[in-house]
Amino acid sequence: MASSLFTLQVGQGPTRLLIDTGEGKPSWLTSLQKVLSSEKASIDRVILTHWHHDHIGGIPDLLTLYPTLKIYKHKPSENQIDVKHGEIFKIDDTTLRAFYCPGHTNDHMALILEEENAMFTGDNVLGQGTAVFEDLSAYMDSLQKMQHEFSGQAYPGHGPVIENGKAKIQEYIRHRQEREGQIVDVLGREVEAGKKGWKSMDLVRVIYKGYPENLHAPAERGVLQVLEKLKKEGRVGVHEDERAWFLQSKPAL
C-alpha cells in the first residue's frame, strides 16, 4: 500500500485499486504516475469514501490515463457504481470490506483491510485534530460502530497513519461527549432576566471563553450540531422565534 496526497493505493501486483483521488492538482497525478511507473503497475478501480472535492477531484485526470476505470461510491453519481455496506473488494491477496459510516457526510464509507485488521477511515477520523460532520447524531453512531470493527492501524483521508485506530476513535467519542456535557451544563444555568433561553453564540462565548473571537463562528456550527442532536433526543427544546435553547424539564415520577 502506498499513499499520495490524500490517495491510498491497495495491492502489490500489476493491477491496483485506489481509494480516493485527491482534489485534482497536477502534482497528485504526477506523483501517482511516478509510483505506478516505477512499480510497473496500473489502476483498474477507484473507491471514493465520500463526495467532497478533495477526494473526487482527480477523477477526470485519472480517466484520461485509464478510460475503462471503474469508479465505486455509495450513493453514486453518473457513471459511478454503487457500493453497498459489507461489499467485498479483492486485490491480489488483499480483502477490503466496505463499511457505511455517515456523519462527516451522509454518503461516507470506510473500508476495512481484513488481513491487517485495519481501517481506511476516510474523513470520519483524521491523522491530526478532529473531524467536521454534517450530522452529529449519525456521526456518533458511526464512531461507536467503527471502534468495534478493527483493532489495528487506521489510515485516514488526511494526516499520518494512526497506530492505534480504535483508541483514537474512543478519544473522538470522549471529546464529543465532553463537549456535549459542557453545553448541557451551561443550559442548566439561569438565563438573564427577560430571556427565554440560551442563543447558540451565547453558549459559544461561555464554553470557548479565552479563545480568539475569529474562532467563534466555526465553534458555533459545532455547538448547533450538538443542540440539534440533543433536540432529537428530547433533552432540549428551542423557542423558534428567538432561537433560544433550553433544557427540557424531566417528567415527574
UniProtKB/TrEMBL annotation:
<dbReference type="Pfam" id="PF17778">
    <property type="entry name" value="WHD_BLACT"/>
</dbReference>
<keyword id="KW-0479">Metal-binding</keyword>
<keyword id="KW-0378">Hydrolase</keyword>
<dbReference type="GO" id="GO:0046872">
    <property type="term" value="F:metal ion binding"/>
</dbReference>
<dbReference type="InterPro" id="IPR050662">
    <property type="entry name" value="Sec-metab_biosynth-thioest"/>
</dbReference>
<dbReference type="InterPro" id="IPR001279">
    <property type="entry name" value="Metallo-B-lactamas"/>
</dbReference>
<dbReference type="GO" id="GO:0016787">
    <property type="term" value="F:hydrolase activity"/>
</dbReference>
<dbReference type="InterPro" id="IPR047921">
    <property type="entry name" value="LACTB2-like_MBL-fold"/>
</dbReference>
<dbReference type="InterPro" id="IPR036866">
    <property type="entry name" value="RibonucZ/Hydroxyglut_hydro"/>
</dbReference>
<feature type="domain" description="Metallo-beta-lactamase">
    <location>
        <begin position="3"/>
        <end position="158"/>
    </location>
</feature>
<protein>
    <submittedName>
        <fullName>Metallo-hydrolase/oxidoreductase</fullName>
    </submittedName>
</protein>
<comment type="similarity">
    <text>Belongs to the metallo-beta-lactamase superfamily. Glyoxalase II family.</text>
</comment>
<dbReference type="GO" id="GO:0044550">
    <property type="term" value="P:secondary metabolite biosynthetic process"/>
</dbReference>
<dbReference type="InterPro" id="IPR041516">
    <property type="entry name" value="LACTB2_WH"/>
</dbReference>
<dbReference type="InterPro" id="IPR036388">
    <property type="entry name" value="WH-like_DNA-bd_sf"/>
</dbReference>
<keyword id="KW-0862">Zinc</keyword>
<dbReference type="Pfam" id="PF00753">
    <property type="entry name" value="Lactamase_B"/>
</dbReference>
